[in-house]
Specification:
Number of strands: 8
Mean pLDDT: 95
Low-confidence stretches: none
Distance between the termini: 28 Å
Radius of gyration: 15 Å
Order of helices and strands: HEHEHEHEHEHEHEHEH
Length: 188
């Protein structure tokens, strides 16, 4: 791939996260450049990705959420071979490692529930397999700042981002981008 994922998200710091067909249709009507696909199954994901790619969008498939795919490396092979997805999102390091081997972009997603989860991000993150980290919920500026201060991998803030103030707070805290399902935020 010619551009780093970090450069792409810095150029397009609001990412459309789509969780259903309505979200897909909505994002096609916008100028948003990067889309996180959070729905689908092994039968529909090739068409979902194809629709996005036809509109010139970068398609990142959250592989953990695709029905019919397991938590094995073959699932990444399927996404790589059967879709034109640019990359995957996962909570599973093994899947991210395989995606990197295949030349796909990778985003490791973390749910930050407590201070132990924050501390574990530093221990569990491998810059050889992860291009970016997404932390959820993304409306925690102090936590975002703490994580960006301890890891060298760029951070995306996702989950519960609902308005301009949330976007600005996350970016000011050190996130390189935000992901959200809210169309009104995509159009900021």
């Amino acid at each position: 791939m010619n551009h780093s994922l970090r450069t792409l998200v810095e150029d397009c710091p609001v990412i459309a996260a789509i969780k259903d067909e309505a979200g897909l249709e909505n994002c096609l009507e916008t100028d948003i450049g990067i889309v996180f696909v959070l729905f689908g199954d092994i039968c529909s994901i090739p068409e979902i990705v194809s629709t996005l790619k036809e509109r010139g969008k970068i398609a990142m498939v959250h592989i953990d959420l695709i029905a019919g795919l397991g938590a094995k490396e073959i699932a990444v092979d399927f996404i790589h071979k059967m879709t034109r997805a640019d990359g995957i999102i996962s909570t599973k390091p093994l899947l991210l490692k395989r995606a990197k081997e295949l030349g796909l972009y990778t985003i490791q997603r973390y749910f930050v529930l407590d201070s132990m989860a924050v501390d574990n991000i530093t221990k569990q993150t491998d810059s050889n397999t992860t291009d970016l980290i997404e932390i959820l919920p993304g409306v925690m500026p102090k936590v975002i700042a703490r994580i960006t201060g301890t890891v060298s991998i760029p951070i995306i803030a996702g989950g519960l981002i609902s308005d301009r103030e949330d976007v600005i707070s996350a970016l000011d805290a050190g996130a390189v981008a935000v992901s959200t399902t809210r169309r009104e935020v995509w159009e900021l």
